[in-house]
Design brief:
Two copies of one chain form a homodimer. Chain A contains eleven helices and no strands. By secondary structure, chain A is mainly alpha-helical. The longest helix of chain A has 25 residues. The interface between A and B is large, with 82 and 81 residues. The first copy, chain A, binds a DNA duplex through helix 3.
DNA sequence: GTCTATATGGAGATAGAC
DNA sequence: GTCTATCTCCATATAGAC
């Protein structure tokens, strides 16, 4: 990234401004007027270079997706066959961490943007599936090998929980800062990541390991009077 | 909830339509015109009854927050002093599950709406903190008693991960449906919840238990060449 | 590739009759 | 409490000169 925004091409100026503003206010919360004003380019240039607003939004997402996916893929491939689930989780999550913390402000905004997109049904197909499912599948297949005794469905559910944990973390909402009376800081992603790995690895082992409890309701059925029709 | 929307008061018709549409498209993705059209009331009545659009949005959130918080608080109070972390997680999460699955379509939309709000920095203060921190604190204090040897900060981080896992689940984005080739369904919240409890409980134990590994980076420091400045 | 100017529609909000 | 009508502003998108 160039040191001064002025040195960048018009396309990059528009993408950078879009990234920052979309991350803060969402797709509908930002106007092209505001984007082009922050980018210090004329309004008409947004449409000229990117077409409709939705295409600009997708261009913002796509710009960094390849680099992120590449880094994750390399990290997964670097692991030997003896790698445990903690190693796999680290390989999958660390590139996001490194880029959000040490990749510059653009990556920080990008991480927060993806965190919001991931919880919105509106963008599941057009963004999450098309941009990120390939590497997700790679992670899942490696995890099946590392936890060979698991019902495959439990691997998928554990991955689902991993994504939720990751996205909450990279959203940096600062809710936990207030809740903890300042003892925890959302911005301290290095620390959170170091806590997240053992937390998630233990979850994977409990749900997908050889001695898995597998299903809470099966163990508790008789103790809970309000439960209904579920197998 | 009345059987026919027509039998409801104007306020409830507007709140119901708002709830459905905000959950699907977000605050800025819905116009008051569309809301009042779906509610089959005149446009001017939205402003008359609720004031500015933002106040209507907050009214939608507040309408069900008290009932949800009450149910969670009762479930936590019902646990004896011998309750484990799995019991606490169940008490905190089950009311959300029960209302989303068996509370009617309004609660389903509500759960999906809250799931998106939780990952958006924009609503952290005005909604998440003001509406949900009180019961969150109750859960955390009980968890500190159940895991007395833990550094308090790890309890807060584990709670943070729990919220991420929960919100991803109740968002029902259907990403995992496609990723799993149909083997898992986002809509099957009863099954997901049954998997979520042992997953999260194991995470809490690993991060906050007596034999906690506590910090992944401390164990792995020498093996990772790319790590930088973090303590 | 960039600028000015504008087309066209929809947004939130309200005044005032009933 | 409800309806009609309207105010004012801003949205996306594009046409056409340079």
């Amino acid at each position: 990234m160039a040191r001064r925004e002025q040195e960048l091409s018009t396309q990059d100026r528009i993408l950078n401004a879009s990234e920052t503003l979309f991350a803060e206010f969402g797709f509908d919360g930002v106007s092209l007027r505001r984007i082009t004003q922050q980018a210090e380019v004329e309004l008409a240039l947004a449409n000229y270079h990117f077409g409709p607003k939705k295409e600009l939004f997708l261009a913002v997402v796509r710009r960094r997706a390849d680099e992120l996916n590449q880094a994750r893929s390399v990290a997964l491939d670097a692991l030997g066959p003896e790698a445990g689930v903690a190693d796999l989780i680290d390989a999958f999550t660390r590139p996001f961490l490194e880029k959000s913390v040490r990749g510059g402000p653009g990556w920080k905004s990008y991480a927060r943007l993806i965190a919001q997109i991931a919880n919105s049904p509106r963008w599941t197909e057009v963004i999450m599936a098309s941009q990120f499912d390939a590497v997700a599948t790679k992670f899942i297949e490696r995890t099946k090998l590392a936890l060979p005794h698991s019902d495959e469905r439990n691997i998928y559910w554990a991955f689902h929980f991993l994504i939720g944990t990751m996205m909450m973390t990279f959203a940096e909402t600062q809710r936990i800062d207030r809740l903890s009376g300042g003892r925890c800081r959302s911005s301290d992603l290095d620390t959170i990541h170091a806590k997240m790995i053992p937390f998630l690895a233990a979850g994977f082992e409990a749900l997908c390991g050889a001695d898995s409890v597998a299903d809470w309701s099966r163990n508790r059925r008789s103790a809970i009077g309000t439960m209904k029709d579920h197998p």
